[in-house]
Design the sequence.
């Protein structure tokens, strides 16, 4: 299946992926207007230090520790994509305890959040990939 | 192939999902002594406070048994006959198995306090029926005495608080423990004090290092002679693995002994979850680690192996993600070795390491990316292959070598 992959060599550290992620799923048409003065809480996050930067988001592991550890059944795998059911999540954070990539985080609405490859919103190329100005984040099939 | 699973909770459900990864057709029977659809046990405190309902606390959807072609038998399994390969039920009927999983869970440990039988409203707090009973009791009475300041006792206190804050008329929650600190199984002294203060601010009263001599009706008499009145007594002293079915059949230490394939010492019988004992990779010691993630993974591992697949789960560690009235705590591993300590803006962090390995950690408050630390423990990552100082300050992939980062973010993962 197609997944999001990151190549730190091409990452500019511009954080645009974070903005596109936060914008995806809002009903707004204009990103600047939608996110102006908003403290964004994206599902993809840039790590940066000493001139190195790269984006981290859910790896959609084949052996997903977050799903297996979820105490409620809110995290499930469907066609290889791991998604959260907000209404079932109680924010116990066992998934945050479990994810080896630090790719699950608290959301602003009382549940956890993670990259869902935009399957609930765009159903195509994820917004972070489309928005990356330097091709550092790609959406492709790898062996 | 006929699979029989004793237990309808996390490990049993994990086993069904494990079996069905490999065998789509074999017959699966779950024997359970509870009359309920599979539900998440840790959610009983959330049920108490109203964050979930009995409907939303179901661990799997209503369609689960049908979709996985599972037959549910609501009965008590009383005996296993290994010669005839049959599980004997309370009504003397028998269920034949080719492969059997014992996922019998744990039961509340109730110490034999003198006079306990004179207490009118007393209960444990580990299953759905307990939660229903406590909800009922709280409609009529408000002065609660909880014995045990561990995970169960304090989640119970939080559940009650969520429904009836201590500002509610007559509401009183007092927690007693023999140990001198709360959450002694997962927190160090300073961390425990911090969480205790947080709960005290919400109105919970603690009596620690406190021994109960006996009960007389609605009174507890402490060793000091002090008399404590209460309406409802919750006994949350601890849990014990349900090993009785395997007594004189397989090796049992503190729990049923299993290997990395979830096999017991008896052919064709597997065990998983709270009733088992496995090595803790963070300390090397054999332990009963009655925790939901371990139960699922042991159950799934058992299921795959029962169905003829190949699966190993050998990475069990103690780990807990728990919160009390908005304060989050994540802990894992063993608290031995040197300590990295950080207290910033009310956040509490302790990392324990020795011999080039991270052994354990405690995070209170900010728990972001805790799994990065869990992974270091579980995979026994040599600390000289990462930037340990950086990861201590800030958990992240940046602390890994470039090639490791690339394989984590750019490659196909298992």
Sequence:
């Amino acid at each position: 299946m197609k997944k999001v992959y990151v190549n730190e060599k091409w990452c500019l550290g511009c954080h645009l992926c974070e903005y596109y992620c936060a914008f995806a799923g809002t009903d707004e048409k204009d990103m600047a207007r939608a996110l102006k003065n908003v403290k964004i809480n994206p599902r993809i996050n840039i790590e940066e230090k000493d001139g190195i930067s790269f984006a981290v988001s859910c790896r959609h592991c084949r052996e997903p520790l977050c799903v297996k550890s979820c105490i409620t059944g809110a995290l499930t795998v469907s066609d290889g994509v791991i998604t959260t059911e907000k209404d079932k999540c109680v924010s116990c954070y066992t998934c945050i305890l479990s994810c080896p990539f630090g790719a699950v985080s608290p959301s602003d609405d009382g549940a956890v959040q993670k990259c869902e490859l935009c399957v609930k919103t765009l159903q195509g190329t994820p917004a972070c990939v489309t928005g990356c100005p330097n091709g550092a984040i790609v959406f492709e099939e790898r062996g | 192939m006929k699979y029989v699973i004793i237990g309808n909770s996390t490990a049993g459900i994990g086993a069904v999902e494990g079996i069905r990864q490999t065998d789509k057709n074999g017959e699966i029977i779950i024997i359970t002594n509870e009359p309920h659809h599979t539900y998440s046990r840790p959610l009983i405190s959330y049920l108490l406070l109203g964050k979930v309902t009995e409907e939303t606390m179901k661990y799997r959807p209503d369609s689960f048994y049908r979709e996985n072609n599972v037959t549910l038998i609501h009965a008590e399994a009383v005996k296993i006959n290994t010669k005839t390969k049959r599980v004997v039920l309370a009504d003397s009927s028998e269920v034949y198995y080719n492969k059997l999983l014992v996922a019998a869970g744990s039961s509340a440990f109730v110490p034999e306090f003198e006079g306990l039988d004179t207490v009118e409203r007393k209960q444990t707090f580990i299953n759905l029926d307990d939660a229903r009973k406590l909800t009922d009791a709280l409609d009529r009475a408000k002065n609660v005495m909880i014995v045990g300041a561990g995970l169960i006792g304090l989640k119970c206190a939080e559940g009650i608080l969520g429904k009836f804050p201590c500002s509610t008329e007559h509401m009183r929650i007092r927690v007693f423990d023999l140990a001198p600190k709360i959450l002694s199984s997962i927190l160090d002294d300073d961390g425990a004090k911090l969480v205790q203060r947080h709960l005290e601010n919400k109105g919970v009263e603690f009596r620690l290092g406190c021994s109960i001599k006996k009960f007389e009706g609605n009174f507890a008499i402490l060793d000091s002679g002090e008399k404590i009145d209460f309406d409802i007594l919750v006994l949350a002293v601890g849990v014990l693995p349900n090993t009785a079915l395997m007594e004189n059949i397989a090796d049992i230490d503190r729990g049923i002994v299993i290997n990395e394939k979830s096999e017991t010492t008896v052919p064709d019988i597997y065990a998983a979850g709270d009733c088992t004992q496995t090595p803790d990779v963070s300390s090397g010691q054999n332990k009963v680690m009655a925790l939901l993630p371990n139960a699922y993974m042991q159950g799934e591992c058992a299921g795959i192996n029962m169905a003829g697949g190949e699966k190993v789960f050998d990475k069990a560690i103690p780990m807990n993600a728990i919160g009390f009235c908005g304060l989050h705590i994540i802990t894992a591993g063993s608290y031995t070795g040197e300590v990295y300590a950080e207290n910033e803006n009310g956040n509490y962090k302790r990392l324990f390491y020795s011999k080039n390995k991270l052994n354990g950690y405690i995070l209170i408050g900010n728990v972001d990316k805790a799994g990065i630390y869990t992974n270091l423990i579980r995979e026994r990552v040599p600390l000289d292959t990462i930037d340990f100082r950086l990861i201590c300050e800030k958990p992240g992939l940046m602390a890994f070598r470039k090639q490791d980062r690339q394989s984590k973010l750019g490659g196909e993962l298992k």
